[in-house]
Amino acid sequence: MSMTVRTVEPGDEDAWMQLYRGYRSFYRLSDDPGAVTTTWQWVRDGQHGLVGLVAVEDDRLIALANLRSFARPSTATIGLYLDDLFTAPEARGRGAAGALLGRAAEYAGQTGCSVVRWVTAADNVSARSVYDAHAEATQWVTYEMRPTV
Prior knowledge:
By secondary structure, this protein is an alpha+beta fold. The protein is built from four helices and five strands, in the order E-H-H-E-E-E-H-E-H. The chain has helices at residues 13-26, 33-45, 96-110, 125-134; strands at residues 3-7, 50-57, 60-72, 77-87, 116-117. Strand 2 (50-57) and strand 3 (60-72) form a beta hairpin. The mean pLDDT is 95.
């Protein structure tokens, strides 16, 4: 089996959406077809600075990664944020996540980004073992605040 990593193409829609639904399910997000469709459109069209990558094995999408640039005022540089990374359960352990991370690092280098950054669930042990092979965990704790209206 031969695996390649490339940017998303319009014809990837159905397979990409299936993978993204799997990502949402893994993180116990609601089944929201509108969110999946909107995110696909953003990734497909490069809206909000999103770049979609997919790992393809034998003409089948097996994993996805969504990237976007962000300003880093503390260093006066641009970073690359990995929003989503997901491998189909039946394709895990074959290197797709590592290949996507490697391509993200290449893309960051090609576009002058100073870092590739992402968050994951603390209990996502299998993913963290892959991440530990490609990056360093930081000391930072993530917080979220709801907007007020």
